[in-house]
Amino acid sequence: MTNGKGGFFKTGQQILTERIAATIGDPATTQLLTVSFTDEEIAPKLQEIAASQPNALILLSGSIVVDMPENVRIPIEANRLQTAKLVDKTVTMTFHPIELALQQLGEQYVTGTLTVKVISPRPS
Q1: What pTM was computed for the model?
Q2: Which residues, at least 6 apart from 51, have a Cβ–Cβ distance to it below 8 Å?
């Protein structure tokens, strides 16, 4: 569930629901891509993916090892689903928005593999 401002919530754990009402929107397509890094800067590949899908919601999942974990800042916000976490030198993402990943990991050199989920057009 989203709050419309980029925040994700986990129903049943972070918010207790009595009912959920869905609205039918425009048809969307979903693509799954895999992107691998071998001790290389993360930003160019992520920027290329984001630029190729400007009207899509792009979410990253997987684990990567960063070269300078002391420069990675992933905020923990109350009442929000944490979609990325850093433990030692490993960043693990679960449906983490690509825009946030670029802000948080921009100049890092990384090793690992990410699954990229592209939902187009971006849900409103």
Answers
A1: 0.81
A2: none
